[in-house]
Write a structure and sequence with these properties.
The complex is a heterodimer of chains A (134) and B (614). Chain A contains five helices and five strands. Chain A has one domain: Response regulator (Rossmann fold), CATH 3.40.50. Chain A is globular and about 35 Å long. Chain A is α/β, with parallel strands linked by helices and 134 residues long. In chain A, β4, α4 and β5 form a beta-alpha-beta unit. A five-stranded parallel beta sheet of chain A has the order 2-1-3-4-5. Chain B has a five-stranded antiparallel beta sheet with strand order 2-1-5-4-3. In chain B, β21 and β22 form a beta hairpin. Chain B is rod-shaped, with a radius of gyration of 55 Å. Classes of the chains: A alpha/beta (134), B alpha+beta (614).
Chain lengths: 134, 614
Amino acid sequence: MNKIERACVIDDDPICVFGIKKILKKVGFCNEIIVFKNGFEAINGLKDLLKQNKPLPQIIFLDLNMPIMDGWDFLEDFIKIPNANRTYVAIYIISSSLDPRDLEKVKEYSSVTNYLIKPITSEKIDTVIGEYLN
Amino acid sequence: MKVSETFSHLNKDEAFVKNATSPIAILDENLNFLSCSKKWESVYKTPLNSILGENFFEAMPNFPKCFQEKLAGAINGESQISNGKSIQLNNGQPVCVKYNIRPRVSNKRITGVIAELTMTESNNMESLLDDAQKVARTGAWEVDLKTNKVLWTKMVNIIHEVEPGYTPSTYEECFEHFKEGEYRNKIYEAANRAVNENIPWDEEVIMITAKGKEIWIRTKGQAEFIDGQCVRIYGICQDINEFKLEELKYREAAEQLKRAVTVSKVATWEFHLNDKLAIWDDTCFELHNIDKNNYNGSLFARWKKSIHPDDVDVIENLFTEYKNEITSKTNTIHYRVLFPNNQVRTLKATLTFISEIDSKTYKAVGVCVDVTKEKIAEKKLKQYANITSEQNNNLTNFAHMVSHDLRAHSTNLSVLTRLLLDEKNEDQKTQILAMLKSATDSLNSTVYNLNEVTQSSDTTNIEEKLSQVNLLKVLQNVKNNISLKFNKKEATSIFDVPPNVEVTVVPAYLDSILLNLFSNSLNYSAPQRKPVITVKSKTYGNKTKIDFIDNGRGIDLNVAGKNIFGMNKTFHRNKDARGVGLYITKNQVEAMGGNISVTSKIDVGTTFTITLNK
């Protein structure tokens, strides 16, 4: 299996982050996991990576409901980051929202690869790996 | 030829023909003239001596050949009689010929014909009269009072739907066809008046035909007097049924319209744009509250004065637009009319412009009605619709928030328990257990919040829960309840509230509102300075305004402004769920009949202003 170098989790819920990290480690998803508590921290963190000439994470798991800067605002700002490799970043929304308005809204963002409904299980992560390898 | 010879071949009787009062000719079997009456000579301008022995058609060149048949018929023994037959003379003139052509018999042998031919200037007048009667469905009648003999023209019989030969045989029978009661009595009396007082009549009444059909007829009659004695009455009878029914229908419709217009208070008016002449009906004066008999200046000027100043321009613009051919011919406008005691009524006017291009005159005609009630109802309806739509929106948001927040917790609980089951490491297990506890606490607080939201939205029986409380006392109470947090943050408070200020509230709501505002101010205090919370109150009439001012971090209202009191943003995992908290606060304030607003400046502070009833 082509192991992913770096994955990123953006979520303000520590329990949720704890759970995802456990699962990602269990399936040996990637070498490095970076975590941000909200969209604002994430944008700054990703910009820092670029400054240090490090590549962006190949996969981002993004929560929607977060304080300071939520998932939607992150998506708006993310596409403004000047980096050609950005288009190779797969963004997965992770949310407990079943609101059809959210599902509809996601379609407006071409940078989003898919929408995962919490809880995040190892089966769902397997699907993500399958999609990524394709 | 001698005259005596001339008549020698005639019968003795035939000699008398000479002096007959009608035009008579005597012809032999070859249709040659044997003789004619003097009348014939004068009528046909044919002196006897010039036609004697001449053939009929040669002597009378204008008679068409079709007469040959008649004459021949008589020679064959068949009398030919007509009371009037239209023929065309050979010179093209149409005439009516009345003839009586009989065989001339002597010694039991037909020896020629005796023809009586009266020519009138065609019977066109008569047939015209006949046709006219048919078209007008009008017949003539006459009662000879001396003999009680009744004469009807054909049309009278047709109208009465009786046999062609029928006429009433007595004076009384003349009235039997009129509908019994009102109509029959009316005509009977009219006829009596005509006979006794020589007063003619002209009435529209219902009669019943022989076939039992009720129809409207017009009957006219008058009497003829000779030597002060009424000798006959005569007149006409006209079938006016269709016309009358239409008229009655129209009258009923017109009456209905009039009633409707009167009841519905629809005003009608006319306005001449050129000379500003206004023509109004009484209702129009009433709707504009103008005394019809007592106003100064022109009606147009007075009308403008009665209208709400904001609406005058709208109407004048419409007139201008019409003159400039911008607007259509028919328009509906609403305008307000000022009534005493600051009352305002809304009128709806529907108008049509009429222009006579040649004379360059423009006028507007139309109707107007008072739609004040409808306007008020419409406004209320819009308000309700807004409230409903807002509440509906809130409900949808609430449902999704509940779903989202509860799911967030249940998801975490299930993830944590699964991890706990899989985990072998004791340290890790302890960590997971701690998280499990925090997750259940969050779930608890979420459920608590949701309950608060539900209760604050419920305004039923709110009146029963309202009571007067002292504002300052409540403030101090709430502050005491969170004194721990106050001390921890080293916060100070200034209550600029007179000790006698009372507000009408649901006590639990006011506690909850103030607690929420205090908590917010303390939680979102500016890091570099100690929190200072100032509460001021001011009373206006029966309202009390409370300003709740802090020196905290402030809120960027450009970002959060619209949703600050809404449920759209939920910060479910923040212990002091600000989004839900302010939503509850707003609901509680409004449930008590008050309102709440906010101003804020980043890094300076936030002020919430609450208005409550005294």
